[in-house]
Every structure is written in structure tokens, then in C-alpha cells.
Amino acid sequence: MSKPTLNIGCGPDTWGDIRLDIDSRTQTGMRSRLNIMADAHFLPFIDKAFSHVRCWHVLEHISNPAKAIEEIHRVGETGNIRFPLDDGYKRETLRAILALSPRAVYYAFLTRREHFHLWTIRPKGTQARRNSFEIFPMLRKGRKAQLFKRIPLPRIANEWEIVF
User: Fold this and answer.
1) ∠ Cα 7 31 94 (to 5°)
2) Is residue 163 within 8 Å of residue 100, measured between CB atoms?
3) What are the residue ranges of helices labelled H in the chain?
4) Into how many domains does the chain fold?
């Protein structure tokens, strides 16, 4: 029997057997799809309870990221953590505009206006890698996709990822 997976700070995401968040709504007001309401600083699970733990874009919002990382390592055998490359506002706004998503533009604006990002995290060493997104995602959809499938489109780095 395999161990379950954990999604910390799940927000509207449905990935994971167990989805944990601090509230039933995100800071921007989106409904959170959580199974368990708990704090990332004090995870209510035994050591190594999960085969994989995912914590995406949570650390920049919480008061003590180091404590949350300790807890993630404690409860998970493997996992990955993602956080913005910088304050996240400019890159997320650009991404939302290029994806033609007014709702995502609004959430990026709200994150900046309300100062929801408490930290700009810069990882040390070579543990972290940069993830990026395509500048023109609309060229990968519909009939255009056949024309552009072999052409590498420009990308912009937008987040750090640490895999353990």
C-alpha cells in the first residue's frame, strides 16, 4: 500500500490525496479546495506520513518559511517547493496578459496591492532551479499548434523550484 500525497497551501488546486490550507478562501478570495484546515508551520501528521509533498507559492505568504520547510521535510519522503523568482507581481501579470486571462491579471494586481507576498526568497547553492513559461501560450492551442509545435517559443523565468 502506497502512502498518500500532500498539497500544502492548495488553494483552488485539486492535486493531492490530502489538500491542506490555512483557510477556506485564499487571500485573493478564491475558494480553497482543502480537506484539512491547518497551518504549514505545524503540520498535524506523523513523520514521513506522505510519499510526496507539494508546496507551491506558499512560502512567500507565511511568517516563518524556514519552519514550514522543516515541517515539509519531516512529513514527506519526497517533495517539491516552488516560489516566485522575485516579488512575482510583474511576471505573473505578464503571464496573465499573455494567457488572455483578466481574472489572473486581477489576482496578480490584488496580490501586489494588498502586499500578500511577505518575502522575496533567494535560494543559496545549486539546489534550486529556475522554471519558466512560454511568452505566447496561445500559439500552442487550436489549429495554430500544428504550425508552431516544432518552433521553440521564447520563455521568461518566473519561479524557483526545489526538489527533494
Assistant:
1) 80
2) no
3) 65-75, 89-98, 102-113, 144-148
4) 1
- Residue 55 C-alpha cell reads as 508546496
**What is the reported pTM?**
0.87
Helix (H) or strand (E) holding 29: none
Q: Residue 54 pairs with which residues in a beta bridge?
A: 7, 80
Per-residue cell: 49: 506520513
Measured CA to CA, the distance from residue 83 to residue 109 in angstroms comes to: 17
Residue 69: other Cβ atoms inside 10 A: 17
What does the pLDDT profile of the chain (164 residues) look like in tens digits?
799 999 999 999 999 999 999 999 999 899 999 999 999 999 999 999 999 999 999 999 999 999 999 999 999 999 999 999 987 788 889 889 988 899 999 999 999 999 999 989 888 877 899 999 988 888 888 888 888 888 888 999 999 999 99
CATH number for 39: 3.40.50
**Which residues touch 64 (CB under 8 Å, ≥6 apart)?**
41
- The three three-digit cell numbers of residue 79, written as one number: 517533495
User: CA–CA separation, 31 vs 19, rounded Å?
Assistant: 13
